[in-house]
Design brief:
- The complex is a heterodimer of chains A (111) and B (132).
- Chain A is α+β, with helices and mostly antiparallel strands and 111 residues long.
- Chain A has five helices and three strands.
- Chain A has a three-stranded antiparallel beta sheet.
- The longest helix of chain A is centred in the C-terminal third of the chain and has 14 residues.
- The relative contact order of chain A is 0.22.
- With 132 residues, chain B is mainly alpha-helical.
- Chain B has two domains: 85 residues; 32 residues.
- In chain B, α2 packs antiparallel against α3 and α2 packs parallel to α4.
- The longest helix of chain B is centred in the N-terminal third of the chain and has 15 residues.
- Chain B starts with a helix and ends in an 11-residue tail after the last strand.
- Classes of the chains: A alpha+beta (111), B mainly alpha (132).
- The interface between A and B is large, with 49 and 53 residues.
């Protein structure tokens, strides 16, 4: 793992981080992250892989009985405590160039 | 054949169709062997609960970006420019942004594109706020 490295803050990376920062305590699986970030299928997993490599994200398999649920376990992602701080700082640095969609912002900022 | 083609775009959400399962299984093949099983399971699990048309969209997207994922796993520091550009809505690539006017906490006005999030500070409007 290449921990403590800062990934390139591309627009999709920022959108993924904003989606995860919207509720840091909530775990999301790949499709949910893509939906929240407004990104097409397939775009999200490479970003999640990079963020996981640098230690900003952690992932785990959903704890379900696949037979009872009728589907395989999903892979859930969430920000690590370090990743939470680093992501906020990186987004703050990147805000002048780009930012996420308004609906991902905290309530009350929109006019 | 009609039934086969009919299953491509219609139907209810639920179990993955054979072709979507096949597509995402194929998508995991170019990945490094240590990651292959994990992503195959992950992609298959994500197909559950989708309609066939959503599965088609999802499987196509996963297949089209599998080399980007492979690069992310093998060379995390390397980034394709396509990765950033392809996710941008076509309207924004043509600079046809859909601006909305917003106010920052300092009271200044700025504009933000609904499509890509690009921001511009309105004249005399102060700084664009950080979101977090």
């Amino acid at each position: 793992m290449e921990a403590n490295r800062t990934p390139r803050m591309t627009i999709p990376t920022q959108l993924v981080l904003r989606a995860l920062l919207a509720d840091p305590s909530k775990e999301l699986y790949g499709v949910e992250v893509g939906t929240a970030a407004g990104l097409p299928s397939g775009t999200v997993h490479p970003i999640l892989a990079r963020l996981e490599t640098v230690g900003w994200l952690t992932s785990r398999w959903e704890e379900i009985d696949p037979r009872a649920e009728g589907r395989p376990a999903r892979r859930y992602y969430r920000l690590t405590p370090d990743g939470l701080e680093l992501a906020r700082a990186a987004l703050a640095r990147a805000y002048t160039a780009t930012a996420g969609p308004a609906w991902l912002r905290p309530q009350g900022e929109e006019s | 054949m009609t039934a086969l083609l009919g299953s491509l775009g219609t139907g209810q959400a639920g179990q993955p169709t054979w072709w979507a399962s096949w597509a995402v299984r194929s998508a995991s093949l170019p990945l490094p062997s240590e990651h292959r099983w994990r992503y195959r399971q992950e992609f298959l699990a994500e197909l559950h609960g989708m309609t066939p048309s959503e599965q088609l969209h999802h499987a196509t997207g996963v297949l089209s970006r599998v080399w980007t994922l492979r690069m992310a796993l093998t060379e995390p520091a390397r980034l394709t420019t396509k990765e950033a550009a392809m996710a941008k809505p076509w309207r924004c690539r043509l600079r046809l942004h859909r601006w909305q006017r917003l106010r920052n906490p300092q009271g200044g006005w700025y504009r933000e594109c609904l499509g890509c999030g690009k921001q511009r500070v309105s004249s005399g409007g102060g700084q664009v706020p950080p979101a977090y």
